[in-house]
């Protein structure tokens, strides 16, 4: 019996965490942390023709299923087969994002005293395209969004920002208030209370403590043996803890970076800021992982800081 998740246009942490993946004759049986369960038929996986083609199924991280060491099934793909409300809620979230963006563009344009025709001309787009964007009927390409932000005199990050509880967005919101902080383990998304208790029992009570102990292969092996948590999952947490060393990343943006394929300081150091920001915007428009986007200057600082920091984690 398939359990249906609550029908609201948000995705809780438990709705993104896969806790089980098993193979049967029909396909891959999957279960999420919120109890939502379903089967991915083999026909939906192009590389798989049937049970005979499946040699290994792993959950190396809670956010994707790995088949035969090479086929990756991300959580949002899996969710489609477990939750009948997922597609509808995704569409609602995407539409809300388009409408919110359109409202901000319209408001800023009017504040500058520009007509739609004049603004479209300055941004080098057609008036019809500008109208559709303002009405929430069209998602602009990054280059179009960049041109519009430039003509409005704001950053792309500010243009995509959704104010929280009516507060005014300011750049300082991107920074942590203290340099020498103690970060709770719960700040790492996939560490639930049960897993946190296992870590606490062996003396790991903070993100900083996890990084210190788990930076080496030996340390991770010891943690795995003491807690009965897999090496792969501990490495996933340690990589996330490593990203927390970058000022301004923290819990919120580390999830977004992970979704964009950046899960280590070393990986971040190798990225081009402008390309990374474009990818982050693309991912967030699809998945709505954060309610505000970082400025270009913030992403540039992340990359610069990653290049300056010593690489602590052994892989």
Index terms:
single chain, 315 residues, mainly alpha, NE0471 N-terminal domain-like, 434 Repressor (Amino-terminal Domain), 3 domains, 3-stranded antiparallel β-sheet, 14 helices, 6 strands, globular, DNA binding, DNA-binding, DUF4332
How would you summarize this macromolecular structure in one to three sentences?
With 315 residues, the protein is mainly alpha-helical. Helices cover 47% and strands 10% of the residues.
Question: Can you walk through the features of this model?
Answer:
By secondary structure, this protein is mainly alpha-helical. The protein has three domains: 13-83, NE0471 N-terminal domain-like (2-Layer Sandwich); 87-154, lambda repressor-like DNA-binding domains (434 Repressor (Amino-terminal Domain)); 185-308, no CATH class. The protein is 47% helix and 10% strand. It is built from 14 helices and six strands. The chain has helices spanning 75-82, 86-111, 116-122, 127-134, 142-152, 156-159, 193-201, 207-214, 217-227, 231-243, 250-259, 265-269, 273-287, 296-308; strands spanning 18-23, 27-32, 37-41, 57-61, 64-67, 71-74. The strands form two sheets. Strands 1-2-3 form a three-stranded antiparallel sheet, covered by helices on one side. The protein is globular. The chain starts with 17 loop residues before the first strand and ends in a 7-residue tail after the last helix. The model is unreliable at 1-10 and 162-180 (pLDDT under 50).
